[in-house]
Amino acid sequence: MRTRIKICCIASIDEAQLAIAAGADALGLVAAMPSGPGVIPDARIAQIAAWTPPPVSTFLLTAETTASRIAGHIAATGPTTVQIVNHIEPREVAELARLAPHVRRVQVIHVEDDGALAMIPAYAPHVHAFLLDSGRPCGAVPELGGTGRTHDWAISARFVRASPVPVFLAGGLDAGNVAAALRLVRPYGIDLCSRVRTDGRLDIVKLALLTSAVREADAVLYAEG
Asked: Is the preceding peptide bond at 55 cis, omega within 30 degrees of 0?
């Protein structure tokens, strides 16, 4: 299986072009957040989403917490996928499936402890995928992504084995640790932001090294069966 690569915090069409040229399968477009990098206006999200050629997916990262507001955010920006970065009520995700059935839904799970595993049955019937990240949604200032921190990959590996839908892995991944993460966790895809940037800008060298490391790891894991 080929590991899918999602490049998050895309800030412009120029960055989108760089990411796609490096082999990105999906682009993450970050809307207003309480903290973290990569936030851009909704108008620019809409511009990048409209420009992006298929089959590359565009993920709207939204901090909205109700189905109606998320659906409105989708309508304003036009992504192919919505990434829900809060642990919202599962009934809201179910309602979103009714309001915006044409857009794929990805629920972020912030892995703080093995309580993350208990969220699988609540959300899985209503989403197309999960994304495991290293935020702290209940902090004094909520962290909902882009922290650059890794989390406990052993919990993530258990989550992947238990999940009935695909799982992306995020949080502090780079060319130096991605092979170990893929070997242990076996995610469907990975999500990258801070570790492929220099001074906040997408770094084509870091991105190329990361992409190469992922493909090498894929080859090794495929050979091992």
From this structure: yes
- State the average pLDDT over residues 120-148: 84
Q: How many domains would you assign to the chain?
A: 1
pTM: 0.94
Amino acid at 149: R
Residue type, 205: V
DSSP characters over 163-211 = -SS-EEEESS--TTTHHHHHHHH--SEEEESGGGEETTEE-HHHHHHHH
From residue 62, alpha-carbon distances to 14, 59, 66, 84, 157 in Å are 22, 9, 11, 6, 26
User: Per-residue pLDDT for 142 more than 80?
Assistant: no
pLDDT tier for residue 148 given thresholds of 50, 70 and 90: confident
On whether residue 212 sits in a domain, the answer given is: no
Closest CA to 181 of 224, 225, 213: 213
Is position 19 within any domain?
Answer: yes
Q: Which residues contact 150 (CB under 8 A, 6 or more apart)?
A: 134, 171, 172, 173, 177, 181
